[in-house]
Amino acid sequence: MATIHIGFDDTDSPAGGCTTYIAALLVEKLQKMGVIFKDYPNLVRLNPNVPWKTRGNGALCLRIECNTDLVEEIFDIVTDTVEKNSQLGVKNTDPGVVFLRGDTIPREIRIFARETIQSIVTLKHALKLLRRFGAEALGYGSRDGLIGSLAAVGETLEGDHTFEVIAYRTPKYLGTFRQVDPTSVREMDKKMRALTFNNVDPERRRVLITPRGPDPILYGIRGETPEAVVKAHEMIESSEPVERWAVFRTNHGTDAHLKRAKDIKEIKPYKPVIARGFVASAPRLVPKRHRIFSLKDESGEIDCAAYEPTGTLRKIARNLIASDQVEVCGGVRPASKDNPITVNLEKIRILKLAPKLKLLNPECPKCGKRMKSKGAKQGFKCWSCGFNSSVSKKIAVEEERGIRPGLYIASPRSQRHLTKPTIRYGKEKTGKLGRMIDYWHSL
User: Which domains does the chain have, with CATH numbers?
Assistant: First the structure.
């Protein structure tokens, strides 16, 4: 028997296509050959900040066991399926396929995968690892898809992970409005809220499981266990048929992309970051209702942006003041002609609030009423009882801030695939995958 890890990426484009759909097709084809799946298809979201990412920036890996005499046929089936279902010929769509044999993944490839999720890597580095470990690979166009393909092989999801069931449309309905019953989604969300996440935006009641693009996905439901997402899938009602569906194991909702910076000076463009510091000045409002503030530490300052679509996060940013101690999380936008390097906020953790003081006129010592100023350096007068004072001074009173220390996350409608939502804190997983459920894809 042979163990093979099959990674593929960069098959879609803004015009259509979907790498997970290719995985679902391959699951059915390979299972008919008697292949044993050692894991659910692994859906690995890569660094969401790289400027050359694909639409969803997700790479796939199938981990299988098969008879050695089937290996060559499997290679042919995989490459043929990728070719026929990729957006070949569309600009910046450059698929890659990687085959790595063996029960274990080399440490260097695991490190490469982590770097691909958190940082910037090169095709040259990927090719070097492919040659070093004897992996077979096929790249199209620029061959950039080999980067994500190798990363998907290297990310074995032995740390925190979640699951997603994805249902696909029939060709007849591609490009049309998705006919998923919103009431059934909201009912599912009520019943499965403890084990699924980001089904509905609570602020606008908008359904989030249905994408809006031209891809073949009808809906995707994310959750903590394969049993939970399959059960949730069975609760959804749709006026259009489901062509096929499958469960994926993924790094969705795990914050896998975020890496803590030692200090602000260390922050670099395109690398998602966690950074601590103090608010340098009150947040300012920029066009389209975005809020910008500067974060500082001993090494320097950097702008942080809470954009209008982040909802709750923008409201929290609006109430920050100078000297608040905070921790920010987000992707890093490079400097442009008009703007400096900026952290596009996904989360804010308020560590300590600075006191916000306001000055009030003193109270009258005779009647207790608030006195009024008689003019600059002329003292105060009580207009109720007539008392005058030339020595009374304004008093400083601490205002209620309206926010408290704690973690604040962008509204679900604005959360990236990798952003860990509030409901997932405390549910993190570690260790290898246990026994797979029997019913994890359409037969």
Answer: 2-154 (3.30.70.2200), 162-250 (3.90.600.20), 259-355+400-415 (2.40.50.1010)
> Do the bridges between strand 242-250 and strand 42-45 make them parallel or antiparallel, or are there none, so unpaired?
parallel
pLDDT of residue 391 exceeding 80? no
Q: Which residue has the tokens 């890890």?
A: 5
**Residues recorded for the chain:** 443
CA distance 65 to 63: 7
Q: CA-CA distance, 355 to 88, in Å (whole number)?
A: 58
Tens of pLDDT, residue by residue over 329-355, are 999 999 988 889 999 999 999 999 999
Amino acid at 101: R
- Listing DSSP states for 209-236 in one string gives SS--SSSSEEEEEEESSHHHHHHHHHH-
| Cβ atoms < 10 Å from Cβ of 430 | 8
pTM > 0.85: yes
Burial bucket for residue 305 (CB in 10 Å: 0-12, 13-18, 19+):
buried
The C-alpha atoms of residue 437 and residue 434 are separated, in whole angstroms, by: 9
CA atoms within 13 A on the CB side of 396: 4
- Chain-centroid distance, C-alpha 396: 43
